[in-house]
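One example copied in:
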Amino acid sequence: DGVVEAVNKATLSAQTGGRVLELPFDVNDYVHAGDVVVRFTDVEQQSGRRQAEAASRAAEAADREAQLAFERATELIGKKLIAQSAYDQAVARRDAARAAFEAARAGVREAGEQVDYTVIRAPYSGILTERHVAVGETVRPGQPLVSGLSLAQLRVTVDVPQGDLEAVRAHAKAAI
């Protein structure tokens, strides 16, 4: 006796919080790889992305201003019209502004990912085996949403009797 099981089976979990807006497939439905299987509301995530984009624009402006101040300080230090400490401060402000701008750009990427996490797609084609949530429920990160499996690759798990084990090892295969 043996058990036939799917090689690829997964339970998809939420990576962000939200309210379930759409569950287009039901249990035993066939889904294609990339199909949307769960969609959340994305109001908070969209707001977070807009805030991150605004912070990035502000950081970019500060970076431009610091770069211009640095260029002016470079000209003035070359003509010996400012102290070395004033030049050093311009360098430090430029470097800090550049780092803040990079951090703000990373924040925009992260906020964009949070928006993307509100749409859950099937990782491979297969059958939806279980729904762990319903439309209207609020979910939190890590909460299971749906489970499914692919019938593209299957394996059979069997218990081989001790007496037949040596023959299977000698031929490195068995027929089922």
